[in-house]
Design a protein that fits this description.
Length: 282
């Protein structure tokens, strides 16, 4: 049974018998798109016509991620989750029951990478951007994907064992509501030197990222790690990297040309990986 709830009345959503979509007891209906995802973001909850990352940004992210420059990060995340599943099993539950939500999943890179290592995970992904969810669902037929906002998660209470939040927004009340007792929140945020050499092209005075992670009440930090390494993307991947970052709009034509022409540019990737647990004191 899926763990989605109705974005209109919060009742559980059941699969229709012909597998064409989901419906609740109040007969609110949500069709399954041909790529397999559901649109659980009602028009009245939309703040703009096309919320979230644009198709261009999603394509750029997909192109860059396909270059596997973020693979060490994906492996680290999978490793951490695997350790947590082992603990979960020690608590006499099966890994089959371990449910993960990739919040602001984008084109689904991390969910796919995790599932390759840990196929027994039951995986949900939501993003407010329709093009992102289309791409994620197309590439992963076993995951459950929905267009939805992190401010109003279309998920049942206490059904998620781990929320993965990679550079994406989350809402404190909603996290508390959907995560199981003693469930987990894994956040990835930029560490001080993330993309330093790229930022040098754009800013006169490059500053270290502030590493203060958003604190969600009800969740206490149980592990914090930093992962740092360098990559040497080719020109196409440097352009894709620029497009998928918030600095893209700051880069004028000259800056863009300079980045495109900077052969063999080594770029530092620098991440903070924080693991929080629900109901653990800070
Ligand atoms: C920087 S991207 C990260 C995507 C993905 N986690 C990754 O690392 O590849 C942030 C994502 O959050 C999504 N997003 C922004 N606001 C959101 C919201 N309120 N609810 C859900 N997703 C949101 C964007 O559409 C975008 O796909
Ligand atoms: Zn309903």
């Amino acid at each position: 049974m899926n763990k989605f709830n109705c974005p209109l009345c919060a009742n559980p959503l059941q699969e229709n018998t012909n597998n064409s979509g989901l419906s609740c007891t109040n007969n609110h209906q949500f069709d399954r798109a041909k790529q397999g995802y559901f649109n659980l973001l009602p028009v009245q909850h939309k703040k703009s016509k096309q919320p979230g990352d644009s198709k261009e940004m999603i394509n750029a992210r997909h192109d860059f991620l396909a270059g596997q420059h973020y693979q060490p990060l994906a492996e680290k995340i999978s490793q951490l989750i695997s350790q947590q599943i082992n603990k979960h099993q020690d608590d006499e539950k099966s890994s089959n029951n371990f449910t993960m939500l990739d919040i602001g999943c984008g084109e689904g890179y991390y969910s796919r990478a995790i599932k390759q290592q840990l196929p027994a995970i039951e995986q949900y992904g939501i993003d407010i951007s329709k093009p992102a969810v289309v791409m994620a669902a197309k590439a992963d037929k076993l995951g459950h994907y929905a267009v939805a906002s992190s401010d109003k998660l279309p998920l049942l209470d206490q059904c998620i064992d781990l929320v993965l939040k990679v550079y994406a927004p989350a809402n404190e009340q909603e996290l508390q509501r959907v995560v199981t007792d003693n469930g987990l929140l894994l956040t990835i945020t930029p560490a001080p030197r993330h993309l330093w050499q790229l930022r040098e092209f754009i800013y006169q005075d490059v500053r270290e990222h502030d590493t203060q992670d958003t604190q969600f009440s009800g969740f206490g930090l149980i592990d914090s790690q930093r992962l740092s390494y360098t990559v040497t993307p080719d020109s196409d991947h440097r352009m894709a990297l620029l497009q998928m970052t918030p600095f893209a709009w700051r880069a004028n034509e000259q800056v863009t040309a300079n980045i495109a022409g900077a052969c063999q540019l080594e770029i530092e990737l620098d991440f903070i990986i924080n693991l929080y647990q629900k109901n653990v004191e800070q």
